[in-house]
Design a protein that fits this description.
By secondary structure, the chain is mainly alpha-helical. The chain has three helices and two strands; from the N terminus they run αααββ. It has helices spanning 14-27, 32-39, 46-58, and strands at residues 62-65, 68-71. The chain has a two-stranded antiparallel ribbon. Strand 1 (62-65) and strand 2 (68-71) form a beta hairpin. The two termini are 22 Å apart.
Length: 73
């Protein structure tokens, strides 16, 4: 996970990409594959994507329901 620092700008950090993912999930629930397809141009790869999902899950912003990712809010 990339955090903002002297070397990494905020807009390039994983924190800046969390709202992008959450906005996609506000509209409707998606499988991880569907969600990645929608945000793959915004994230640097699958590893960053899964790290962001793990962080959002730990913060209780998302949850898994029947194989789909659900936005908790």
């Amino acid at each position: 996970m990339r955090f903002p620092s002297k070397v990494t700008l905020y807009k390039e950090s994983s924190l800046a990409k969390m709202p992008i993912i959450l906005r996609k999930l506000e509209k409707n629930d998606m499988t991880p594959r569907e969600l990645y397809g929608k945000v793959k141009k915004k994230v640097s790869g699958v590893q960053e994507f899964t790290e962001i999902l793990g962080s959002l899950y730990a913060m209780r912003k998302i949850e898994e329901k029947e194989g789909r990712i659900h936005y908790v809010g």
